[in-house]
Structures are given as C-alpha cells and as structure tokens.
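Homework help board

Subject: predicted structure for assignment chain

Our instructor gave us this sequence and asked us to write out the predicted structure in token form, then describe one feature. I got the tokens but I'm not sure how to describe them. Can anyone check?
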Amino acid sequence: MKFTFCYLREHLNIAFMQMLFVCVFAVVFYLYHLPLAAVLYPAFICFLFGCVFTGRSVYIAYGKHKELTVMQSLSESTMPDAFGENVGILERDYQQLILKLCGEMQAREAEMADSYREMMDYFTVWVHQIKTPIASMRLHLEPEDSKLSRRLKSELLRIEQYVEMVLTYFKMAGDSSDYVFRTVSLDKILRESIRKFRGDFIMKELNLIYIPSDETVVSDEKWLSFVVEQILSNALKYTNEGSVTISLEEPKTLCIRDTGIGIAPEDIPRVFEKGYTGGNGRENKRASGLGLYLCKEICDRLGAKISIDSEMEVGTTVRIDLSQYHYADK
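My token output:
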C-alpha cells in the first residue's frame, strides 16, 4: 500500500493532464451549447480505462521494485536482467550504470582487502621484530637493581603493552577468531599480570591487596590476560598513592579497585568508546583512547561483561563478570 501511494504521488502529472483534457472538452461543449452528458459520459468511461491502466502500471512497477530490492544483495556476476526486454532507453541506461558501479565497488573492495592484508603482514612482522630489541634491553637491565633500572624496566613494559595493543587492535578489526575457550585458573592469570607490574608497585610505593581465590573460569587465557593487564596498567598510571585491590565478587566477578584520581561522571558513559580519552587522558597527553575500547571489545567476544564505577579523587573500580560460561559436571 505504501508503494502504491508513492507511485501515484510520483505520477500525479498524468492525472492532472487527464483532468485538463476533460475540462477543455467541457468548455468546448458548453460554448457550442451541447448537452453536458455528452462530455461526462465519455469522461467517466475514460476514467475507468485510466484506473485499469494505472493499476496495471502499479503492478508492473511493484514487480520491478521487488526485483531491484533483490538485486541490492547480488554481485555483478549474479545480477539478473531486472527490466526484461520491453524497457525504455532510460531504464536500460540505469541498469548499465548499476552494473558499472557494482564492478567498480567490487574492484575497490578487492583493492582494500589486499591493502589490509599487506598492512597486517607488515605490522605482524614489525611486532615480532621489535620484541627482539625489547627483550635484549630487558636482559641487560635485569642484573641491575637501581631506581634508573627499575624506571627503564617500567618504560619497557609500557612499550611492550603498546606493541601488543597495536597487534590486538588489528586483530580485532580483522574479526580474528583466535579464541580458545577452556577452564583457566584466574589466580594464574592475576599472578602473571601482577608479576609484570611489580616494578611499578615498588617504584610508586603502592600497596597491593590481593587474596588468592582458587577460582576457575571458562575463557581464553591470552585475551583475558590482555584485559587484566590493561586495567592494571590504567590503575597504576592514574594512582599516585594508596593501593590497588584485586578481589573476586559473586558470582565470578573480578574486581580491580584503585585509589587514584578517578573519572569524571560525564566521562564514565563514554570510556569504552574508541579514541575517547576523557578529561584525565587529555591532561595526561599520552592516552590513546584504545585501551578500554579494546577491553570492551574483547570482553564482548569472550562473553564477559565489563563495567566501571568511579568517583573523583576517591578511586575507580572495574568489574569483569566471568560467570557467563560453565562446564557441565560429568
């Protein structure tokens, strides 16, 4: 019905033209003093014929409309001749234009896919190459235990995080299926993440409050570790004094709480947006706005739920609900 109204509205000029012809005949018959019925009767018959032809035109146009709707999801090679043989020149020109645009679009998509693959290959090689000098620098710093060495180790850790963030970002953009779900020890993931940041805790003189829970969850160990490390990195970055608390809430909700500078209320709804840094990020000048965005994307793919509560000058609490998946007891 909506299509019929739209079609009739687009062809109102034909109806106005017909009414104009009737008026012309009526005026001529009136001037020659002929009976009015002599013009009304043939006008009524013409109106009936007009309705029949209009209905047929609507039916044909609706059929073309449905075929064109189907064509929108087809490629150039599978596109049918939607207009048939008995078509006008303009319709045939439109069809040729559509075919040309489809060909150009497919060529552009193939070009972009090739470019993306080349970029992914380059960054994959770059990530693996850059890890070699980072590992070498860490080995050279390992024997030393001074403020300078601890500071350099901390900066090396951040470089490693940024490198992993680059690779993770491209994997997420490419719909990576590199996920292996199994039962993993939450304590193992947390201990390894804490061990990476132990230098930052010592250097900033922050207290770590962590009580092992011996809890297991169903998730991907590598991707979940990335999320935990990113949240711990943020907690350390924005906490200058106090503590970082890691605990487990029911049911299987990992809670990481810090006593840092906090997040403004107006920023909290947008912290998971891509590229959004908020007030703290703009003051810090080093925030990329990708860390929490990647955490949210990974949690969505892992079937977990991540949320943030914060209060300015009090601290921030990040919760990751890992209770979505369970193995059935056998």
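Reply (TA_rk): Your tokens look well-formed. For the description, you could write something like this. The radius of gyration is 34 Å. That's the kind of observation they're looking for.
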